[in-house]
Amino acid sequence: MSTFLGMPAAPPRSPFGTGNLRGDRTFPEAAHGELRNDQLRHNLGRATRTIRTKRLNVTGELPDWERLRDAGSAVKTDTMNRLPELLEQLEQKVTERGGTVHWARDGVEANEIVTRLIRATGSSDVIKVKSMATQEIGLNEHLEAAGITPYETDLAELIVQLADDKPSHILVPAIHRNRDEIRQIFLDEIPGVDPDLDNVPAHLAAAARAYLREKFMTARVAVSGANFGIAETGTLAVVESEGNGRMCLTLPDTLITVMGIEKVLPRYQDLEVFLQLLPRSSTGERMNPYTSMWTGVTPGDGPQDFHLILLDNGRTAALADTIGREALNCIRCSACLNVCPVYERAGGHAYGSTYPGPIGAVLTPQLAGMHAAKNDPNSSLPYASSLCGACFDACPVKIDIPSMLVELRHQHTEQSGTTVEKLAMKAAAGVMGKPKLFTAAQKAASLGRVVGGRDGTISRLPAPLSGWSDSRDTAAPPKQSFRSWLASAEGAETMRAAADEGARLTAETPEEDQ
Amino acid sequence: MTTSPTARDTVLGRIRDALALAPTPEVTVPRAYRTGRTLPDGERLALLTDRLVDYKAQVHPCTGDDTAEVIAEVLRERGARRIGVPDGLDEQWLTAYDGEVQRDSADIPAPSLDALDGVVTASAVSCAETGTIFLDGSPDQGRRALSLVPDLHVCVVDLSSVVAGVPEAVARLVPERPTTLISGPSATSDIELERVEGVHGPRDLVVVIRTDA
Ligand code: SF4
After folding, report:
1. What is the pTM of this model?
2. Rounded mean pLDDT of A118-125?
3. B59: part of which helix (H) or strand (E)?
4. Do A302 and B178 touch (CB under 8 A)?
5. Average pLDDT for residues A217-225, to the nearest whole number?
């Protein structure tokens, strides 16, 4: 609660021990286990290669792609600056149009609200559209404990749910499964499925269609997330492919939408930017097959009882961090996962959180914190990167993930007293067969990443250069971007010296320590 | 059943605290991307057709006078004997069709639409560059369930309603209307990230583009 005397208090993280924002092993440990899974790496490598090519094709064909990214980035930054007024406006518009708005301080509270709303309808089951927010708060587990059966309707979520598995990708939660495995899961778990079902993707999709059809036609309550919520008009948008979203958003009497507070956009017009950025970055399509947009309740069309739950769950804690705040700009396209060499090798499960990959490595610690206790798996996430910068280049809203990783490493080592080098090496050893290659990549890449401290000096450099910067402060012009500083003679000189010294330090590190 | 005022005040208070703790400069959004584009009829038609075919939708260009014939032929080819239409659909469009037509109304339960062989609707706007058709629930497009539940969707697009890009299309929408963007038939990329047509939405999308309307 904010105080009345103008003394702001640091907002809390997502409560420890709730939801799905923390694994049970550190990243290097978890990644090491996954590395032995050849099938997983093969599946991931194949899928991410496919999507990378498609994404480059469809982003390359727009002459104004970079201008769209600039606009998208600025819209999100502007949104965060004006979050209170925008959320109040969204609430007002949704309410005017016949919807009900609820606020949830954390996942526990959101789960309780959803459960209460479902109980009020008398229904004992609910159909769900794929939603990161409800994954994050562990809604399904909560509903099951309360005697309500949630049916995931997105194909990949269905695969994950039927296999009692965990999602491993933002967009395609079952990306770690290939067609043969999916066929087997369907044969084992779908009642009455055709025993002759083969592994042709179209046939697998048809089996899912047949299985879920009856659920769509009879369900009375649906739970969804939202990709965007427009403050100006109260309009919510869900972007999808299969039509399961349309089914859930249209056929039941009651619709409950759980939306993180950072998903609000100021104007309806902003959709013209994000409806270009999101599909091209996520599935590599010019447009995804279906997008649904609705504003409150429309008499005679769709659910007549609509509830919007606005979720904090650590988002305000991220907002209170000048650098970490940028993670809230994420539109969950998953492009950064698909280009990340560490994600491709380790797989999504190694991150232990609903949010894997590069964005997960920065967002998860922002939302749930890096607990001071030793071995909090979240403390290992900022090291789950070679800082190669591919995520930054792919991100449609230009989130500087590498700089955030460096900042989080710094915050973590300040708390824990260990050195960045040691932890980075540990992560490298967990992920890469040849840790030396990893650190070499890290070293080359880190030339592009430093963070200027509050006193206007660059006081910390990413591993393995940080040993160098510990002993001397480097002046950094405060109002200059790092890139332009780097381009200056002074920047170039400083970085050359840092690189030389960093290279020497790394060369001296004995292999056993890795 | 309303919000606990405490949660609302708490979250808004936290946001204000966060912004006070980490103030950032105001930003102006640079909207230097392409807007207000126009393209000649032929180019819009070619572009939209190319995109739709790429999504594996069927495309039939025709003139306003041919509309009824083309629709009837499409339905005949697919053996659609019983179709649904929105209440406000132009009656002229169905004069050549000899099957059964169910005019939609709010008291027809949505699940019963599953028994229809197909649906014929008009459309509000289309975006050529992305191959996207926008339905907005107007009387000639009907409620959302109607164009969703049947497995065949025959969608009539007037070339005059086709615009070049996404910004031009968004500018034509009425935000308060329930709006559905359709880019090809239902599809999924969930199996090995390869696009496969045909999951829960209509598996068969036929677009009739009226080039003089
Ligand atoms: S951080 Fe950027 S690239 Fe990664 S999922 Fe979010 S929006 Fe996409």
Report:
1. 0.88
2. 97
3. strand B58-62
4. yes
5. 97
Chain B contact set for A68 (CB, 8 A): 33
Q: How far apart are CA A26 and CA A22, in angstroms?
A: 9
Helix/strand/coil (H, E, C) string of B123-165? CCEEECCCCEEEECCCCCCCCHHHHCCCCEEEEEEEHHHEECC
Q: For residue B2, tell me if it sits in a domain.
A: no
Regarding predicted confidence, which is higher, A17 or A223?
A223
Half-sphere exposure of A461 (CA within 13 A, CB side): 29
Residues A270 and B175: their CA atoms lie apart, in Å, by: 12
Could you tell me if residue B118 is inside a domain?
yes
Q: How far apart are CA A334 and CA A358, in angstroms?
A: 9
Confidence check: pLDDT of A458 > 60 = no
Of B55, B148, B193, the CB nearest to A172: B193
CA of A4 to the centre of ligand 1 (A): 37
A332: left (phi over 0), alpha (psi -120 to 50) or beta: left
- Interface test mutation site (partner B, options A13, A70, A100, A103, max chain B beta carbons within 10 A): A103
Q: How many C-alpha atoms does A33 have within 13 Å on its Cβ side? A: 11
Q: How far apart are CA A23 and CA A378, in angstroms?
A: 8
pLDDT tens string B141-167: 999 999 999 999 999 999 999 999 999
**A155 at interface of B, judged by CB pairs closer than 8 A:** yes
Question: Domain tally for chain B?
Answer: 1
Binning pLDDT at 50, 70 and 90, where does residue A219 land? very high
CA distance A52 to B6: 46
Average pLDDT over residues A97-109: 98
Paired sense of beta strands B196-197 and A451-452, if any: unpaired
Residue A173 DSSP code? T
- Span A406-414, mean pLDDT? 80
The whole domain housing B154 covers 39-210
* Closest-CA distance of chain A to residue B62, Å: 24
Nearest to B10 among A1, A10, A175 (CB): A1
| Most confident by average pLDDT, A6-20, A137-151, A410-424 | A137-151
Helix axes A435-446, A420-431, angle to 10 degrees: 130
- Tell me, yes or no, if B60 comes closer than 8 A to chain A by beta carbon: no
Q: Does A105 touch chain B (CB under 8 A)?
A: yes
- Determine which residue's CA is closest to atom 6 belonging to ligand 1: A330
Average pLDDT score over residue span A198-204: 92
The protein residue whose alpha carbon is closest to atom 3 in ligand 1 is A395
Please provide the average confidence, as pLDDT, over all residues in chain B.
95
Which element (helix H / strand E) includes A451? strand A451-452
Is B31 a domain residue? no
User: pLDDT tens digit string along A487-507?
Assistant: 555 555 555 554 454 444 434
State the ipTM, two decimals. Answer: 0.96
Closest CA to B210 of B79, B44, B78: B44
Report, as an integer, the average pLDDT of A245-252: 97
pLDDT score for A417: 65
Q: What is the pLDDT of residues B71-126, one digit of tens each?
A: 999 999 999 999 999 999 999 999 999 999 999 998 999 999 999 999 999 999 99
- Using a CB-CB cut-off of 8 Å, the residues of chain A touching B107 are none
Q: Does A294 touch chain B (CB under 8 A)?
A: yes
Q: Please report residues of A whose CB lies closer than 8 A to that of B126.
A: none
Taken in order of first residue, the domains within chain A and their CATH numbers are 84-317 (3.40.50.10420), 318-415 (1.10.1060.10), 437-499 (no CATH)
CATH code of residue B57: 3.40.50.10420
In a domain, B17, yes or no: no
Work out the mean pLDDT of chain A and round it to a whole number: 84
Atom of ligand 1 nearest to the CA of A337: 4
